[in-house]
Amino acid sequence: MSTIYLFRHGQAGLRDDYDRLSELGHEQARRLGAWISAERLQFDQVIIGGLRRQRETAEAALAALHEAGLPPAEVRHDSSWNEFDLDVVYDGIAPQIAAADAEFRAELEEQLRMIQAGDGAIHRKWTRADTAVMRAWIEDAYPCPGESWGGFVDRIRAAGEEFRRLPHDARVAVFTSATPISIWGAAAFDSRNPTHIMKLAASAVNSSITVMHWRQDELFLALFNAAPHLTEPRLRTFR
To answer: Is pLDDT at 126 greater than 90 in this prediction?
Structure first.
């Protein structure tokens, strides 16, 4: 039975500078690394997605493993584990919805006003405009440049197919993001349903731990969204 650890990145930056860890995100990542080393987890392979926030989280964890004398046998970077690009989705779809829906246009304008005014709350919540843009992308309701929802799911599913071929006792860590983790969580139940995937993603805390097993060519979800290292309420964030 091979074991796959899927680690979500720590809290990211603000909406207009998202792909980096916040100060709190760095603390979450350090605590994740301390937990991994305290558990004496030694990985045959560590895979790091291509995004800065994924890389910064992995760097903190790897530093803790090296300090504990538990370096992984192999470390590699693989952008196949990247989150979808919300900026591309927003830029492609939001103007089209705004042109057709006055209520959405007003909500989007208010959201932009709050960002420009420096209202910190807007950066850490999922708005109705966000939901409308995501739904339109998932449903392919408007033309959008870049990756489709279906193409994104296919990419993430393909990235994990290599795990079927692992030795039975292999232990692999992947530093990635909420939706890729949720795609594989849903895959354990043979689901590609976007509602299932996005409900899982919405519940994922920053730097959470998900564990999956491949056993006799079957995928099992052993642990989802665990956060034993986030011992204080202030550390448990979603965005």
So the answer is: no
The CA–CA distances, whole Å, from 56 to 21, 175, 207, 222, 224 equal: 7, 10, 11, 26, 22
Res. 174: pLDDT tops 90: yes
Closest CA to 174 of 50, 25, 11, 23: 50
Q: Coil, strand, or helix at residue 222? A: strand
Q: How far apart are CA 168 and CA 181, in angstroms?
A: 21
Q: Which amino acid is at 130?
A: D
Report CA torsion sign: 146, 147, 149, 151.
positive
Tokens representing 141 are 């309701």
**Per-residue pLDDT tens for 177-222?**
999 999 999 999 999 999 999 999 999 999 999 999 998 889 999 9
196 CB neighbour count, 10 Å cutoff = 15
Encoded amino acid at 117, one letter: A
Please report, as a single letter, which amino acid is at residue 176.
T
CA 32 to CA 39: how far, in whole Å?
A: 11
pLDDT at 168 over 90: no
As a whole number of angstroms, the distance between CA 163 and CA 167 comes to: 9
Give pLDDT tens digits for 31-73: 999 999 999 999 999 999 999 999 999 999 999 999 999 999 9
- 224: which residues sit within 8 A by CB, 6+ positions away? 185, 200, 210
SS3 track for 51-103: CHHHHHHHHHHHHHHHHCCCCCCCEEECHHHCCCCHHHHHHHHHHHHHHHCHH
- Is residue 121's pLDDT more than 90? no
